[in-house]
Amino acid sequence: MPKTKAHTPATRIGYGFDSHEFRPGIPLKIGGITLPHDKGLGGHSDGDVLLHAITDALLGAIAAPDIGALFPPSDPKWKGADSVIFLREALKRVQDAGYRVANVDSSLILMAPKIGPHSAVIRARVAELLGLHINCVGLKAKTPEGLNLDNAALAHVVVLLEKAPQKKKKARKKK
Fold this sequence. Notes:
Elements: E1 11-24, E2 28-30, E3 33-35, E4 39-41, H1 49-61, H2 67-70, H3 84-96, E5 99-110, H4 119-130, E6 137-142, E7 152-163
Parallel strand pairs: 5-6
Antiparallel strand pairs: 1-4, 1-7, 2-3, 5-7
């Protein structure tokens, strides 16, 4: 394969997807927020479909390994882990690649609970985690009518990254 110079575009787009089945006896976490509901999302970690999809979108935008490769479900240390850990690692990799998050847009697909009453707090938490203004975080919710997905939650996410400003190097004084 021929070698080429590394291409560093000014912007990059990433897409992430995740899904989990509802299970009784566990808390429901979406976007880093615990929501009142009689079931939570099963998963090896805390099952936060939104943070998992954002994590994969961030990693995909910089062509990094996906969440499953970095945090394998076969590794017991990730059992019950807070998904914020995964998101922070993805953000670190984005920053190390010379980028920052410009905005994120997401769609949640689930029958219940209704996301509308919780949308503002979820958006605020995602904005806080990503270091964004809330107006740079989109969140929509849809029901899975006719899809036979009443016992699952799905998340689709796109992120836009932009080149981070380079830090200015201090000039050395001549002696």
